[in-house]
Amino acid sequence: MVSRALAGLPSRVKERLKNVVVCVEQAPSKEQLKETGTRKGDILLGLFEGIPETEWGKGLGAPLPDKITIFQEGIEHFAKTREEVEKEVADTVRHEVAHYFGWSDEELEKM
User: Which domains does the chain have, with CATH numbers?
Assistant: First the structure.
């Protein structure tokens, strides 16, 4: 489903994705929850870890690949049918790719 979501991104977006790994994990680690400020009872669906494109070339050297993680348990918490899971995965992939390009949660909520 994640592969289909990535394939479904507009060509102009896919062409600009560089040095990024996309993976699926069962659930976020304790460190990821702490780093994101996720409170007990909140659910993390996905996470972008890296340097947003808007920050590239600012004396940071050659960075390791950025990482987008999609969390299966979080997705399945909100989506019960296969169709709902597929839609939530696609929405979460788009959301995390937007973070890769430097969009904040606040900017995404306005859209």
Answer: 2-54+63-110 (3.30.2010.20)
